[in-house]
Design a protein that fits this description.
The model has no long low-confidence stretch (mean pLDDT 84). By secondary structure, the chain is mainly beta. It is flat and about 55 Å long. The chain has one domain. It is built from 1 helix and 5 strands. Helices cover 8% and strands 31% of the residues. It has a 5-stranded mixed β-sheet. The longest helix has 8 residues.
């Protein structure tokens, strides 16, 4: 299920803020247009709304470091490390401004 989250200042939290649930209606009031219900959104402390994107990238913490490998140094995909859970891949989350819906032409 898709969600909308709000970032709230909290001095008792580990990083000084916490995430709490919000509604699409709250986010739509801030943007001024209807939001796509198939997407996750985040309401920042500055009352700006961001769409949450996710990408899968190669892990920066691991690489082929087997110098005795018959294929040569850095010749094949990494086998993984603790940082990526031994998969060689990481998921990166990022935010960007939502786009208003396209207008239908008659």
């Amino acid at each position: 299920m898709r969600t909308v989250l709000r970032i709230v200042d909290d001095s008792t939290a580990k990083y000084g803020f916490r995430r709490e649930p919000a509604t699409y209606e709250e986010a739509e009031k801030l943007t001024g247009f209807r939001l796509d219900r198939r997407v996750n959104y985040l309401i920042l402390r500055s009352n700006k709304v961001e769409q949450i994107g996710v990408a899968t990238v190669g892990c920066s913490g691991c690489s082929c470091d087997c110098s005795s490998c018959s294929y040569g140094y850095n010749a094949h995909e990494p086998s993984g490390c603790y940082e990526c859970g031994y998969t060689g891949r990481r998921r990166v989350h990022f935010g960007f401004p939502p786009s208003p819906p396209a207008r239908k032409s008659a």
